[in-house]
Amino acid sequence: TVPETVTTLLNYAFAYSNLKNITLSKSVGYVKEYAFQHCVHLESVTFDCEGAKIDYCAFDNSTSNVRKNVKNIYINAINIYESPFDYSFSYTNFSKVENIVFGDQITKVPDYFFCDSSSLQSVVFSSSVEDIGEGAFRGCINLKTIIMPEDIKITEIKDETFQHCWIERFVVPKSVTRIGKNAFSRTALKEISLSENLTVIDESAFAQCVLLESIKIPDSVEIIGKSAFVACVKLTQVNVNETSSLHTIDEFA
Q1: pLDDT tens, residue by residue, 155-174
Q2: Which of 27, 18, 68 minimizes the C-alpha distance to 47?
Q3: E strands, 61-199, where?
Q4: Tell me: the pLDDT tens digits for 24-59?
Q5: Cα 240 from Cα 249, distance rounded (Å)
């Protein structure tokens, strides 16, 4: 654990070390380039720093042929992503991560934050999360477990958030009123429980969910968008009550 007195980790601070686990304390405000370069034994990183800037190559191993080993990330940092990490951890430093846990300081997960990570298997959100960005976990083809507490505050599953993940079962939180475009398309969904406050299932939201066999549309849903369930080849049962608020079923839905 980095001591609470430390505010900056300079270039190559821990480079080529035998570190297995590192916690960036709340005092850390800046992690410079190559601070953890070639830490080939590093398995777990905890981001507990508030507002820290993490340079793009802080955890880089690009000068070696050794693949990144970090498998577990705990993120409890505020605005850690206001740095060159804006787009995705997975593209640069954390291509082998299997598990992510968001702590109770996190309110927002940025757009495309961990997209296209083929190693990611599970994500645990805290109840403090209010916003999960577009495409945040798009293309995480081995992501099977998503845990969201009942009192999570998100109001929508945004466009492409879980597109092409390997989720088999999902319960949409009660706070969600919209499921965005391609939010769950090309997933392995077998069961989906929709929120009783849901009003919009947007375009291609569940397109090509080839294992989905049945769906219950809550009375609150007003719009089922274009191609919402297109190419769901096993979908044989769609339940809509007579008391439903549904007024629009778009083309190819």
Answers
A1: 999 999 999 999 999 999 99
A2: 27
A3: 72-75, 99-102, 108-109, 122-124, 131-132, 145-147, 156-157, 169-171, 178-179, 191-193
A4: 888 888 888 888 888 888 888 888 876 667 776 777
A5: 12
